Amino acid sequence: MRILEDFISLFFPNFCLGCNRSLYKQERLVCAHCISEAAKTNTHLEHDNFIKRKFDGKIQVENAWSYFYFQKDGIAQNLIHHLKYENRPELGVELGKRYASVLKEVINLNKPDYIVPVPLHFKKLKKRGYNQSAEFAKGLSQVLEIPYLNGLERKIATETQTAKSRMQRWENVNTIFGVIDDSVVKKHILLVDDVITTGATIEACAQILIDAGCKVTIATLASVR
């Protein structure tokens, strides 16, 4: 079996999705160099961090963390592009596992009851085939040993958010999410998304959960500073 694996890796090498270099046998999807060099926020080490401050005066969150800084042409942007647009859902799971190993010690101080992803509208979900935030959430769930729950729905397919101001984004998403599993009610929820830009989308999801009596902690794969 070992000989067969060596033969396969010789003629059909796996490449890092961050830098396109060949992976060592013990590496999976992303090389150690990319994980080391990707700009990390380390927000889990600071309670009053820049991500949590995005929500000051808007919603009450227990904690807010992000794995990477989202930088133009950076490693994180490249990885997220593969995750969202190159049909690599397994990358979301892998990055979720890696981030969970970073968060494990701090999250046990105030452990959530469920991990819930920001949902996609069913039309976009059907087109893409998976929810990238859900895949990231599943990886977190496996290592943190917190149950994964598909607890929210996106009721309306919104327009693209890229060119909108923060206020326009908030108006666009404030009424489009809903709770679809009453298990979340009055629980502590780890709400998970891929990227925070203005924070309007995840803020809207968090507000729905807060209205259901939940405490909310936020974790994302990347964040714009």
Automatic annotation (TrEMBL):
Residues 133-222 form the Phosphoribosyltransferase domain. InterPro entries: ComF/GntX_DNA_util-trans, PRTase-like, PRTase_dom. Pfam families: Pribosyltran. It comes from the Bacteria. Belongs to the ComF/GntX family. This is ComF family protein.
